[in-house]
Design a protein that fits this description.
The protein is α+β, with helices and mostly antiparallel strands and 154 residues long. It has helices at 4-7, 72-76, 105-114, 125-136, 143-148; strands spanning 26-32, 39-49, 54-61, 78-81, 93-96, 101-104, 119-122. The protein has a single domain (18-148), classed as SH3 type barrels. It contains 5 helices and 7 strands. Strands 1, 2, 3, 4, 5, 6 and 7 form a 7-stranded antiparallel sheet that branches.
């Protein structure tokens, strides 16, 4: 019978660490200091830039902020998500496709591996593709970032 030390050694399967598959469509919750006021927000991974070790995310909000997005084109770039389609939503929500948020993969991956309850689920592929389509014409996202995160081809 193996000893406790053997069972908990680095070579033991019992000590296998939880790993996160960082991929487009993954939805997670994380404290966001880029909002006013700073608060926990849901994020969706849109794309990955392996060369720069970055991910691009968009936020899920409860509704369109018409004070910020007063033009119809900006409001159109907010995709509606239904609570009945996504169990992790507490109410019908929108994805803000006007802003792409780059973050370091390692920081997000480490956070999610240490806080697995923050992983909420995945978007359907058709919703992920619709988000990317709405982001194509967004003047608030640089062409460089659109290429980098696979929204458009170079």
């Amino acid at each position: 019978m193996p000893s406790i030390e053997e069972l908990l050694s680095e070579h033991s399967d019992l000590k296998a660490k939880f790993t996160v598959d960082i991929k487009p469509g993954l939805v997670f919750c994380m404290f966001d200091n880029r909002t006013t006021p700073p608060k926990p927000k849901y994020h969706v991974i849109i794309g990955i830039c392996e060369e720069e070790v970055l991910i691009g995310t968009v936020r899920i909000d409860s509704k369109i902020n018409t004070t910020v997005y007063y033009r119809i084109e900006e409001q159109y770039r907010c995709l509606k998500l239904k609570e009945e389609t996504y169990r992790f939503l507490k109410h019908n929500s929108i994805v803000d496709c006007n802003i792409l948020l780059p973050s370091r993969i390692n920081g997000i991956k480490q956070y999610l591996e240490n806080n697995s309850k923050c992983i909420l689920g995945e978007l359907k592929i058709e919703d992920l593709e619709e988000i990317k389509l709405r982001m194509i014409e967004a003047p608030t996202i640089s062409k460089e970032d659109k290429v980098k995160f696979g929204i458009i081809e170079n």
